[in-house]
Design a protein that fits this description.
Blueprint: H1 7-19, H2 23-59, H3 63-68, H4 70-96, H5 119-139, H6 142-151, H7 163-189, H8 199-221
Helix pairs in contact: 1-7, 2-5, 2-6, 2-7, 4-8
């Protein structure tokens, strides 16, 4: 189809990639636990938007620049690592401010729940930053660009008449399948929000998440150009 082959194997490969813990999965978990289904879906949408960017880069050869240029690879790598550390610091601040939940589901000191008329505005305020985080964590990860450049050609026929179109087709498949996975993942994780954790547990979860993001940043910083 469109100069591609072994699509069943490609689908299985994408599933394995989705199941492998990494920055995208951690960001989706954090957004879902802190902001519910809407927050998790906003982060997932941002992640998939980043995948669309990587698909376009691979299709039109721009990702090859990262593979060929050590300086371009390093610049993107360090920008991505710095952004992950910035996210970790945000989780540390959130953990320091964590308060225990009260019996009616509100956190002490947070004030009453917003009225229904303000729901749309509150949703926009909460979801747009999460969408932006999803885009940036994905786009600023050079490993994903190299991954797209290395993975997609393996499923494109050598004699394909239109290789960019084949790249776009496989990239669209990757995005669609990954989006379905993340939506299901958000719905699976969201019930955990019903657990009324103590302030100590909330702080511990935030700080543990921050530690994981710092670890992921260190892994990214140590990546060497292939």
């Amino acid at each position: 189809m469109l100069g591609t082959h072994s699509l069943a194997l490609f689908a299985a490969t994408v599933l394995v990639v989705n199941l492998t813990p990494g920055v995208d999965m951690m960001l989706t978990i954090a957004a879902t636990l802190r902001h519910g289904v809407a927050g998790g879906l906003a982060a997932a949408l941002g992640i998939e938007t980043g995948c669309i960017v990587h698909t376009l880069l691979a299709a039109f050869g721009l990702a090859a620049l990262l593979a060929a240029s050590a300086s371009a690879f390093a610049a993107l790598k360090w920008a991505g690592a710095a952004y992950l550390v910035w996210l970790a610091l945000g989780m540390v601040r959130a953990g320091a401010a964590a308060r225990p939940a009260t019996s009616d589901g509100e956190r002490e000191g947070d004030g009453p729940a917003p009225v229904a008329g303000n729901a749309a505005a509150l949703s926009h305020v909460r979801t747009w930053p999460l969408f932006r985080q999803g885009v940036l964590t994905n786009v600023l990860n050079p490993k994903i660009a190299i991954f797209f450049l290395a993975l997609l050609p393996q499923f494109i026929d050598a004699g394909a008449a239109d290789k960019p179109l084949a790249f776009l087709f496989l990239g669209a498949w990757f995005v669609a399948q990954s989006a379905l996975f993340l939506v299901a993942f958000v719905l699976l994780v969201s019930p955990l929000r019903r657990w009324r954790a103590s302030a100590a547990w909330r702080r511990g979860l935030h700080w543990a998440g921050a530690g994981i993001f710092v670890w992921l940043a260190a892994r990214l910083a140590l990546v060497e150009q292939a």
